[in-house]
Please model this.
Amino acid sequence: MKTAFMFFARLMKLWFPYLLVYKLLLSCGTLYLGMLILRLYFYLKIMVV
Model:
């Protein structure tokens, strides 16, 4: 049981930075996508009016 826990802890320590980077990239990607959609929306609004 203890060995499994140690292995799990080591695995978590190994994977944590990757998870953090993935989360950061995901949030940045969503933000970028939102800005892109907003910019497109304003551009279309200006084109129509």
